[in-house]
């Protein structure tokens, strides 16, 4: 059995019967003699043939039609162009494949072959019958009690499985071609055969048939919307009552003249279509000019509707809100809003009922009044349905909102806006307040602060024009900024004396406030301290210098100006320099200079000579002119500033006499002339030496005035005083040519 079933939709299956016709030895055997297959599918016909061995077969083909010259090979038939293939897959066998079958392909197909001379030819008759069928949905029964049949023009075999689709979705798969169910209007149905689902029937809308075949008042309505992507559910209203909810946009019904219809998409009921009269002009209707109304909390609102009851007389009408059904005595029967205690004194009906217009006015609106409001009327027999969407009221307060409220830094652009939860009106005029003061020149919903400055910090509220009393709550705006006016104050102010305590305080304005203070001293890289105040206790002269602080918050940091700290102290050290530094001979001059470290500098110098109680002099330098041997002695100075006094150690001033033999030589040379004068001179000289003191020749100054040497040995004073028993170090001052003798604390200093 070489037959290949195609798409498992093959129908009548007959076991092949070898047909031997005519001359002995010539025959065609068709593998399968009859096909019923689907429009669009593929069929394969195959056969084997025999012939007497004396012949050589050169031509084989399939055909259905003849022309003047005889049978036309399917491969040459324009109707089958591109859809036919021959295959000689085995000896004396032949297979024909026809693809993309059309109903016009239904025919008897025969195989024919010829020998090389063309004189001998044979056709296998009868041929293979091929029926091509489409699928169709047939509807039987009435109303909802219908049966659908998936029909074909020939009978499919192989127990085909039928698939049913409802609105494009597979709903049934069965070997029976029948489908019985509860069918709702406006659903579409289609069927297919398993394996060839692509060959499914066109969708059949059931009610279309019924409408055209059976019922004259049956009308199908289509809820037209723009294309909705997410398989919307449509809702139909008849006279205000919801009558259908379905994914199909079609609705069919028996129409009465007074009926009106409206449709909506579920979830967007407020955007329903207007109620339309299907026939005539005078059908029932309720129309709301607004689907939604936005109103300010505290204000009043008018919600209106127009209505028509056709030729029926209205017995009563009312407004209600489905939200408040809990307080109705029967939850299914709407009650007049005017009787609702929640609206007591706040509801009134306005408008002229005669002209078919009713207005519901609600005053002193509260947020809980946000609800849907519907108008219904009743006639003697029935009334307008209460499922029809009404007008949705949204009550909003105003609220000041700040765009990007986390990042309000001075200098940036900022926008505040007056927010309402619903859209109030296009051209509304707004009023802005800052700290309850009206801001002039800002009349839109948006308040721009470009750029925002720290002065904009404040409490803001907004209102709409003519409802100033219904302004929003206040919203605080805080503008952050970095450090400003960063400065240092010193406490106590005034003089800072060594040993006392001083506190430096850093002040800086910033918002948010400074969260970090750091203290620095000029020319010192590492911070000295942190914290807003920096206290230096027991201050010392080393603490003198210039200080500054750095203040920092998340917005930025800034440093203060330098603040000098000048630590005052009484004289700390004092010393005496002697000039000239060499040997001091009688008659020459010597200057003693008192050098001291004090802050403020010493303003009073007093010179003393040891064993002499009264001061010798005052002033920083003490100059002894025309020195005589009586001036020899230990000198010291007392320095004084306003914080104290200090005595230096003493320096010994030696005075050398002129050499005694020099005048003798002079006397010898002039002896002849002035013997008398010489004698007087010698006498006087000797007399003075005897009262002057010690031996001048023993004094040797061994000063090495090497300016590059830091230290050198100075006056050898071991013969002068026990206090100078050791060498005294003298330091050269680079700024001063005069050598200076450092004093050490001595008895004199007290
Ligand atoms: C057969 O298929 C073609 C294309 O697929 C379609 O146009 C035609 O209507 C079908 N015929 C029937 C009877 O279904
Ligand atoms: C009453 O109102 C609530 C809320 O609006 C609603 O969920 C409920 O279905 C209503 N009940 C009736 C009986 O209409
Ligand atoms: C706003 O515009 C409407 C119509 O565009 C107009 O009737 C109304 O007076 C305007 N209101 C104000 C406050 O300008
Ligand atoms: C900061 O300094 C400016 C001028 O330098 C002055 O006008 C302002 O008042 C100061 N601010 C404060 C808070 O001291
Ligand atoms: C501080 O540094 C500057 C420059 O580096 C220098 O001129 C100045 O003398 C220094 N001051 C002190 C007190 O060291
Ligand atoms: C103050 O400092 C000086 C020198 O640093 C020290 O000798 C003295 O004891 C200190 N006084 C106090 C009260 O700490
Ligand atoms: C100063 O007086 C003391 C005792 O009063 C004495 O020992 C010392 O030698 C005197 N010094 C001089 C230089 O006269
Ligand atoms: C310094 O010496 C003079 C004279 O001896 C004395 O009156 C004074 O009190 C001394 N000063 C100090 C600080 O010891």
UniProtKB/TrEMBL annotation:
Source organism of the structure: Salmo salar
Coiled coil: none
The keyword Cell membrane is assigned to this record: no
Transmembrane annotation, as ranges: 658-685
Superkingdom per UniProt: Eukaryota
Keyword annotations from UniProtKB, A to Z: Immunoglobulin domain, Membrane, Signal, Transmembrane, Transmembrane helix
Domain Ig-like, residue spans: 126-211, 219-265, 389-466, 473-560, 571-653
Keyword Membrane: yes
Identification of the protein by name: Sialoadhesin-like
UniProt lineage: Eukaryota, Metazoa, Chordata, Craniata, Vertebrata
Signal sequence coordinates: 1-22
């Amino acid at each position: 059995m070489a037959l290949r079933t195609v798409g498992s939709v093959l129908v009548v299956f007959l076991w092949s019967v070898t047909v031997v016709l005519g001359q002995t030895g010539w025959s065609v055997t068709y593998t399968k003699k009859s096909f019923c297959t689907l429009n669009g599918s593929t069929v394969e016909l195959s056969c084997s043939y025999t012939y007497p061995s004396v012949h050589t077969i050169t031509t084989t083909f399939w055909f259905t039609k003849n022309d003047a010259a005889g049978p036309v090979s399917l491969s040459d038939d324009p109707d089958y162009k591109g859809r036919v293939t021959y295959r000689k897959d085995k000896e004396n066998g032949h297979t024909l494949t026809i693809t993309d079958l059309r109903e016009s392909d239904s025919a008897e197909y025969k195989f024919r072959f010829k020998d090389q001379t063309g004189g001998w030819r044979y056709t296998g008759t009868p041929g293979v019958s091929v029926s091509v069928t489409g699928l169709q949905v047939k509807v039987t029964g009435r109303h909802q009690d219908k049966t659908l049949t998936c029909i074909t023009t020939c009978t499919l075999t192989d127990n085909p499985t039928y698939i049913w689709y409802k609105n494009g979705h597979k709903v049934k798969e069965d070997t029976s071609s029948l489908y019985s169910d509860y069918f709702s209007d406006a659903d579409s149905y289609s069927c297919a055969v398993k394996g060839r689902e692509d060959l499914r029937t066109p969708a059949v809308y059931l009610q279309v048939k019924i409408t055209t075949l059976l019922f004259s008042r049956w009308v199908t309505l289509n809820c037209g919307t723009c294309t909705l992507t997410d398989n919307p559910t449509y809702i139909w209203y008849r006279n205000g009552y919801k009558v259908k909810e379905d994914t199909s946009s079609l609705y069919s019904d028996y129409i009465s003249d007074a009926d009106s219809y409206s449709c909506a998409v579920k979830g967007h009921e407020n955007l329903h279509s207007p109620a339309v009269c299907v026939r005539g002009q005078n059908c029932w209707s309720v129309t709301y000019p607004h689907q939604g109304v936005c109103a300010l909390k505290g204000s009043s609102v008018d919600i209106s509707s127009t209505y028509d009851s056709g030729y029926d007389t209205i017995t009563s009408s009312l407004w209600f809100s489905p939200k408040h059904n809990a307080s109705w005595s029967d939850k299914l029967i709407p009650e007049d809003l005017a009787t609702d205690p929640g609206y007591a004194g706040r509801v009134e009906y306005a408008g002229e009922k005669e002209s078919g217009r009713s207005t519901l006015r609600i005053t002193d609106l509260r947020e809980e009044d946000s609800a849907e409001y519907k108008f219904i009327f009743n006639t003697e027999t029935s009334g307008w349905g209460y499922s029809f969407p009404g007008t949705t009221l949204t009550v909003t307060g105003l609220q000041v909102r700040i765009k990007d409220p986390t990042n309000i830094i001075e200098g940036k652009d900022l926008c505040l806006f007056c927010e309402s939860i619903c859209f109030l009106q296009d051209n509304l005029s707004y009023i802005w307040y800052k700290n309850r003061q009206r801001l002039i020149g800002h009349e839109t919903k948006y308040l721009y602060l470009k750029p925002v400055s720290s002065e904009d910090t404040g409490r803001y509220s907004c209102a709409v024009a003519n409802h100033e009393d219904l302004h929003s709550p206040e919203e605080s705006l805080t503008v952050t900024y970095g450090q400003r006016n960063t400065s240092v104050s010193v406490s106590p102010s005034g003089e800072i004396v060594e040993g006392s305590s001083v506190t430096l305080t850093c002040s800086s304005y910033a918002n948010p406030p400074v969260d970090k203070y750091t203290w620095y001293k000029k020319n010192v890289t590492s911070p000295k301290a942190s914290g807003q105040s920096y206290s230096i206790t027991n201050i010392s002269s080393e603490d003198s210098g210039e200080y500054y602080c750095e203040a920092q918050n998340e917005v930025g940091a800034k440093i203060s100006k330098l603040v000098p700290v000048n630590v005052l102290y009484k004289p700390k050290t004092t010393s005496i320099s002697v000039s000239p530094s060499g040997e001091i001979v009688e008659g020459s001059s010597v200057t003693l200079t008192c050098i001291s470290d004090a802050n403020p500098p010493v303003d009073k110098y007093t010179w003393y000579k040891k064993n002499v109680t009264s001061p010798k002099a005052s002033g920083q330098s003490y100059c002894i002119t025309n020195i005589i041997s009586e001036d020899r002695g230990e000198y010291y100075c007392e320095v004084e500033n306003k914080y104290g006094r200090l005595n230096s150690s003493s320096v010994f001033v030696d005075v050398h006499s002129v050499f005694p033999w020099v005048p003798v030589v002079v006397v010898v040379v002039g002896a002849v002339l002035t013997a008398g004068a010489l004698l007087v001179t010698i006498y006087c000289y000797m007399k003075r030496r005897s009262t002057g003191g010690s031996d001048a020749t023993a004094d040797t100054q061994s000063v090495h005035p090497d300016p590059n040497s830091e230290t050198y040995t100075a006056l050898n004073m071991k013969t002068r005083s026990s206090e100078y028993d050791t060498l005294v170090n003298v330091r050269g001052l680079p700024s001063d040519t005069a050598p200076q003798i450092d004093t050490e604390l001595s008895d004199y200093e007290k």
